Amino acid sequence: MDRKRLVLASSILAIVVSVPAIARPRPVTKAPRAEQAERLKQTLISAYGMEAATEPTYIGSEFCLACHTSYATWRDGLHATMHADLPDDAGSMNPANGIIFDANGNGVDDFKDGLDFNAISSPFDAYKPNAPILKYVAGEAYPYRVTIGTVTYKMLMKEGGFFQQRLITRIPVTDGAADGLSRSYYMLPFAYSPKLKKYATYNPDKWWDSTGAPKVVAGMTAAQVIGIGRSWTKACVGCHVTGYSVQKTANGDWAADAPPAALYNSGDRHYVDLDLDGNREFAGVGCESCHGPGSQHVLGGPNPSKILNPKNLPREQQVWLCAQCHTRGKSVPAGEHDYAYNESANHGYRIGDNVWDYYHDEAGLWPDGKTPSKGEQQYQAHEDSKHFTNGFHLVLCSECHDPHSGARGMPVTSVLSEGVQISTSFADNTLCLSCHATHGPFESLTKSEIADVATNRDKISRVVSAHTNHPYAPERMLGMSRCTTCHMPRTAKRDWEYDETSHTMEAISPQKTMLYQDKGGMPSSCAGSCHSIKANVYELGTDPTFKKWDEAWDKSNASMLLKYFGPGGIWWDSDVTKSGNTTAAAKEGRED
């Protein structure tokens, strides 16, 4: 196949993908959409040098959005924007939204400030005098640099956005590519939060030994460094790039490749040169991750039978589309990669397959064996939830999350429930009540009332507050009586704080905090969401550390909360030791 890329500037792109606003005479047998499809087909033929695809080929999301314009919001979402090329000019690390590394708040990028962590107190104190030193070399192709010990690294990509950003590089090796660098990409050992204006270490044990000395030194081979630094190629690319492939090179390094980008705006920094051939590939999750390769669909004119609509899959397979990435595990059989990959067959997850045929479960859980303590395992939690196991309705990820959304959390904004169209949001409970109204504690609420939440707020407030025993203010900062505050507390930690919600849908009792004190304790919904650093109703003060759950403060707080939620609780009388939910059950077909 001719891998030539066709890079189109935005003005040309608009011509290719837009239907003219002013109607012009056309043959009666050819609709405007058909003309548009023909232009896309010719663009694809020009880019790839083929008139018919012998096998399905990944072509990139811009071909999809050219016709399916209503899904263009995908471009603003985390799936599309998780990686970006770094600028080679005086711009910030993310020119699109102005985010820069600026921990001291002086408005100057920390790289241009020459921030030296050896000269300040920071999370890197244990690694002085080999803590990172940031620098910016004006006029160079890759001006952002980080020095650790005697080795200086060029920053090639960034990962993340407003909440956290990490940096990706390649390591200088003696047997590297033509530029003297490893083929494998690596995650630098720190992350930065533009929201918190803080740095944090990221897998520091892969970069420094127990004495604080750097593990990577000048003169190493590719095989020597592959087991040291955090390899993005081995650990991340499988979930972060659509249509990727990986292969082990003759010198023991790992190379990543991705489908060529044939249609994109030349100024879009989410397209990077992953395979080092001088051309760009899309570094993100695109349409074809869930719909399959799109070449035959476009070349067919378009032929709807040549593309996958996930809605036509069995319900569990629809959930597996998300599970291929939102699961914490190792590849099979040897655990070479931290993503869904069959090493024997040498390919990643294929739509329709059981995800556990590609993963060994490596869930990071709290001591109850059920609640996620680490990020990116929404599917494992969902698999243990009543949303998945109730026997009446397997709840799809797409019933709560819109994969085409550009909003954080990708919430579904409209639901048709029992013939009633309901505008939905997590913040005002309408998304949850669009299903749960007319059932259980919410039996007296109708779907029509949820559709007109402003008019019926008093009744909704009374019903929900009777269930929560709290005032009704879901839209406010504390989220009082918000469904997700109790049933989806933030239990999974990343670099700074708990920032991922649990999908077990369990309102976690403070009894679990006490029950597992010999294992460090664990958060409850009450303490994790409010009664720790937000609410001080018991006059205990606020949680001094928050990330620990076995301190005297945590035990005192849990004891107070148990009066309301736990064995003999005046609001919720429950005992987790009798409910059978202290250990997650293994599912059929799942390798644990």
Structural descriptors:
disordered C terminus, disordered N terminus, alpha+beta, 592 residues, eight-stranded antiparallel β-sheet
Instruction: Tell me roughly what share of residues is in helical segments.
Output: 10-25%
Distance between the termini: 41 Å
Number of helices: 21
Shape: globular
Please, what is the average pLDDT?
Answer: 87
Structural class: alpha+beta
Contiguous uncertain segments of 5+ residues:
1-31, 89-99, 581-592
**How many β-strand stretches?**
22
What does this structure look like?
The protein is an alpha+beta fold. Among the domains are: 10-77 and 288-308, no CATH class; 83-235, no CATH class. Strands 1, 2, 3, 4, 5, 6, 7 and 8 form an eight-stranded antiparallel beta sheet that branches. Strands 9-10 form a two-stranded antiparallel sheet. Strands 11-12 form a two-stranded antiparallel sheet. A hairpin with a 4-residue loop joins strand 4 and strand 5 (165-169).
